């Protein structure tokens, strides 16, 4: 199979997120506001919170700032752009409540990286505590784009169920609160946007996904030198991939190339975004009965009358053309069956996988009819002629704020409890 991914392509995709700023198709209004829980935004693969003054969420339109002006409190998280969903969920938890990241004793020993990460002051330290004014739990909503949708699902699973493996090997006084499994009711609503819940067949365009990721980091670091490392945060500290004070670029690149991170295929984004990895994740990450789940897909392809394949629309960013064509015609029978139902896509993610988890999952996906059901995926449908990054306001000249005001209104309409 011809290898479509390359370090140069990944660099272009990452850096081009800065260039432009998405618009929704028309969306129906939600009902009146019932809660004022803050929204936490979680970016996808290669994402960031703010880079060179350009926010990931909305580009120059700045979705976070706009929602705050509309009376919707919100926070923007920044987790490892290339890390696994487990590691990202642990980082997200620490970022919200405050404290040091604990990746878990069992997990860190299994994959061979450091157990502890960075320490954060807390975006919303009162999360999960009882509000004395209402007598109810301080909850949040979570919105995830692309891989960010997988990450917030993992966080919700761990909050309510914890992890038996971590409890079995960790002394009680050392156990991270995230793994206790006693945090039911901390999340009100989850909304995923263009999330590859079943992975993306774009993963099969790369012969060695971990090597490609490694090469991309080396290339970026070598290209930008110290300034690149200062501006773009790879957040792979748990693997020792952090440039130390006074360390030369050459020494850092040597450590990147020899890191144990590339010797495993199952604790990096490259595995979780692979359909096999996504299926594995779906077997243990389930929709929680008390949380309202929403999903939104994007589509920017059309069916070829000649071949029946899905081809990029003119509205798609040309950077996605090759991968979109790959997704739009790719099939396989194993290890995960991929047929023509996967072909319609937004440039990186198939529409069907953005609906919600199918592979290895018992979660129910239902069309959103105006009255959401908890514990199920309320599918909001697909946004037409809008690609994977344009949907969040990047690499597009259209305004994403109406769509995200709708999202905020929808989440605020959920019952307070």
Automatic annotation (TrEMBL):
<feature type="domain" description="Lipase-like C-terminal">
    <location>
        <begin position="35"/>
        <end position="398"/>
    </location>
</feature>
<dbReference type="GO" id="GO:0004806">
    <property type="term" value="F:triacylglycerol lipase activity"/>
</dbReference>
<dbReference type="InterPro" id="IPR056304">
    <property type="entry name" value="Lip-like_C"/>
</dbReference>
<feature type="signal peptide">
    <location>
        <begin position="1"/>
        <end position="29"/>
    </location>
</feature>
<protein>
    <recommendedName>
        <fullName>triacylglycerol lipase</fullName>
        <ecNumber>3.1.1.3</ecNumber>
    </recommendedName>
</protein>
<keyword id="KW-0443">Lipid metabolism</keyword>
<keyword id="KW-0442">Lipid degradation</keyword>
<dbReference type="GO" id="GO:0016740">
    <property type="term" value="F:transferase activity"/>
</dbReference>
<keyword id="KW-0732">Signal</keyword>
<dbReference type="Pfam" id="PF24708">
    <property type="entry name" value="Lip_C"/>
</dbReference>
<dbReference type="InterPro" id="IPR029058">
    <property type="entry name" value="AB_hydrolase_fold"/>
</dbReference>
<keyword id="KW-0808">Transferase</keyword>
<dbReference type="GO" id="GO:0016042">
    <property type="term" value="P:lipid catabolic process"/>
</dbReference>
<dbReference type="GO" id="GO:0005576">
    <property type="term" value="C:extracellular region"/>
</dbReference>
<keyword id="KW-0378">Hydrolase</keyword>
<keyword id="KW-0964">Secreted</keyword>
């Amino acid at each position: 199979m011809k290898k479509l991914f390359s370090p140069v392509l990944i660099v272009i995709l990452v850096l081009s997120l800065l260039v432009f700023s998405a618009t929704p198709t028309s969306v129906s209004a939600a009902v009146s506001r019932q809660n004022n829980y803050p929204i936490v935004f979680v970016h996808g693969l290669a994402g960031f919170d703010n880079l060179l003054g350009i926010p990931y969420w909305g580009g120059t339109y700045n979705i976070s700032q706009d929602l705050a002006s509309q009376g919707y409190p919100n926070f923007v998280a920044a987790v490892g752009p290339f890390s696994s969903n487990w590691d990202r969920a642990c980082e997200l938890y620490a970022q919200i409540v405050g404290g040091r990241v604990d990746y878990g004793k069992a997990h860190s020993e299994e994959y061979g990286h450091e157990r502890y990460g960075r320490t954060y002051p807390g975006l919303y330290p009162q999360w999960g505590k009882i509000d004395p004014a209402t007598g109810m739990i301080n909850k949040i909503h979570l919105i995830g784009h692309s891989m960010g949708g997988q990450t917030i699902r993992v966080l919700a699973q761990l909050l309510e169920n914890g992890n038996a493996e971590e409890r079995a090997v960790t002394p009680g006084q050392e156990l991270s609160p995230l793994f206790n499994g006693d945090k039911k009711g901390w999340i009100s609503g989850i909304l995923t946007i263009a999330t590859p819940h079943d992975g993306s067949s774009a993963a099969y365009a790369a012969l060695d996904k971990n090597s490609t990721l490694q090469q991309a980091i080396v290339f970026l670091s070598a290209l930008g030198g110290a300034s690149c490392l200062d501006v773009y945060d790879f957040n792979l500290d748990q693997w020792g991939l952090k440039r130390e004070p006074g360390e030369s670029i050459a020494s850092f690149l040597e450590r990147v190339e020899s890191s144990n991170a590339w010797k495993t295929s199952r604790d990096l984004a490259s595995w979780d975004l692979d359909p096999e990895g996504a299926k594995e994740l779906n077997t243990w990450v389930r929709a929680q009965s008390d949380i309202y789940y929403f999903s939104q897909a994007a589509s920017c392809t059309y069916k070829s009358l000649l071949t029946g394949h899905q081809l990029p629309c003119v509205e798609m960013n040309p950077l996605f053309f090759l991968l979109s064509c790959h997704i739009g015609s790719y099939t396989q029978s194993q290890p995960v069956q991929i047929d023509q139902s996967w072909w319609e896509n937004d440039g990186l993610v198939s529409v069907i996988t953005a609906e919600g988890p199918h592979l290895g999952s018992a979660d129910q996906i239902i069309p959103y009819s105006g009255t959401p059901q908890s514990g199920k995926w309320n599918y909001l449908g697909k946004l037409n002629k809008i690609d994977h990054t344009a949907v969040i306001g990047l690499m597009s000249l259209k305004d994403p704020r109406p769509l995200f005001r709708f999202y905020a209104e929808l989440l605020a309409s959920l019952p307070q409890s």
